[in-house]
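Lab notebook, bench 4. Still working through the backlog of constructs that have no structural model yet. Next entry is a single chain of 214 residues. Request: give me the structure tokens for it.
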Amino acid sequence: MQQNLLEEIYDRLIEGEAQQVKDLTEKALEKGYTPEVILQKSLVAAIEVVGWRYRQDEIFVPDILMASRAMHAGLYVLRPYLSNSDRKYNITIILGTVAGDLHDIGKNYIGMMLKGAGFNVIDIGIDVPAEKFLEAIQEYRPEVVGMSALLTTTMAEIQTNIALLEEQDIRSQVKVIIGGAPVTKEFAEAVGADGYADDVFEAVELVKNLVGVS
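Model written out:
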């Protein structure tokens, strides 16, 4: 049976074939697939499999980098459609990947979706130490800060970051949301985060609920 376009994008991303992912994503849009469906059913679904295989030691860093490049190729095509929002909120969100973690895929597409929903998003990058999160919060005064960890070995950095905000007496001034493949709702509650979402669409709704907008 012939594959549909969503399945083809999914398979090509897992194989790290960036140009094919880009071309197939463009073709899927032309065929009437919505950007949201392409993102969730193909790009996000595939990169989650890549992440799982990496954590199981079935694939290695070069495979992750190739898949990441393919993911970015698909996002490049979708970005104009997903970021086309007439609604703008005077609300700032800081996003960063915690210290020791060099992954940015999830952070990037969540940031794109939040921008598309009308929020002001400041991305402070990857491998971000707790002190840099603190400095960014003090500088930009965001309503929300999002911390990402893809590796189980870097999850503890989230707790370190939250503890530093408490020590500096600014924890009450900002909502903290966390995410990443190994992160769970139970972990979020244990470290004192304000929220956790399973996917990018839930993350947007979570932020809206935390800041009280619709």
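Notes after review: The radius of gyration is 17 Å. Residues 61-82 form the longest helix (22 residues). Flag for follow-up if needed.
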